[in-house]
Amino acid sequence: MSEYISDEEQMNRFSEWWKEHGTSLLIAVGVTVAAIVGWNVYSDQRQQTIESGTAVYAQYVDATEADDKLALAQRIKTEFPGSSFQVLVALTEAKEAVDAGDLTTALEALQSAREAAPDALLADLASLRLAKVQYALGEADAALQSLQRIRNEGYQSWALELTG
């Protein structure tokens, strides 16, 4: 008896295997190709969004006219909601409001920054600054609540210092 099988027998075995597993194999290959193409499209779209957001934020930072800066801030808020760019704009607006002595506007800007923060680090930074503004407005209980929301270890020492 020979260890080798004939070409005809190999074709018959392959044909049987193909009948049993061919459809599953084609579906698996199709799903894999679709997943790879979908992921590439998603990644490209996300990269384009990040690049356009960076460009608009750079224009915002470089803007010298108040009207231009306000228009760019509004554009960032509408085109890139929930992004780091929106949070950075809100933090800048809060700083400008504090410098102008308008703590109520700063409070609103910091609350919107905290709500829009895409990650805990920016949310904790906004909470820390919010607590300072709340304390300056005489809202000590609200300031303590804002400080208790801080979870990042890097901001814990500042939160504890302000709590004291």
Describe this structure in a few short sentences.
With 164 residues, this protein is mostly helical. The protein contains seven helices and no strands. The termini are far apart.
Structural class of the helix and strand makeup? mainly alpha
Percent range for β-strand residues: under 5%
Low-confidence stretches: none
What is the helix/strand order? HHHHHHH
Q: How many helical stretches? A: 7
Radius of gyration from the alpha-carbon trace, in angstroms: 29 Å
Mean of pLDDT? 88
Overall, the morphology is: elongated
Strand count: 0
Largest sheet properties = none
> How helix-rich are the residues, as a percent range?
over 70%
How far the N terminus sits from the C terminus, by CA atoms, comes to: 91 Å
Can you put this structure into words, describing what you see?
- The protein is mainly alpha-helical.
- The chain is 84% helix and 0% strand.
- Helix 4 (103-116) runs antiparallel to helix 5 and helix 6 runs antiparallel to helix 7.
- The radius of gyration is 29 Å and the shape is elongated.
Features:
164 residues; single chain; mainly alpha; 84% helix
Describe the secondary-structure layout:
Blueprint: H1 7-62, H2 66-79, H3 84-99, H4 103-116, H5 120-136, H6 140-148, H7 153-163
Helix pairs in contact: 1-2, 3-4, 4-5, 5-6, 5-7, 6-7
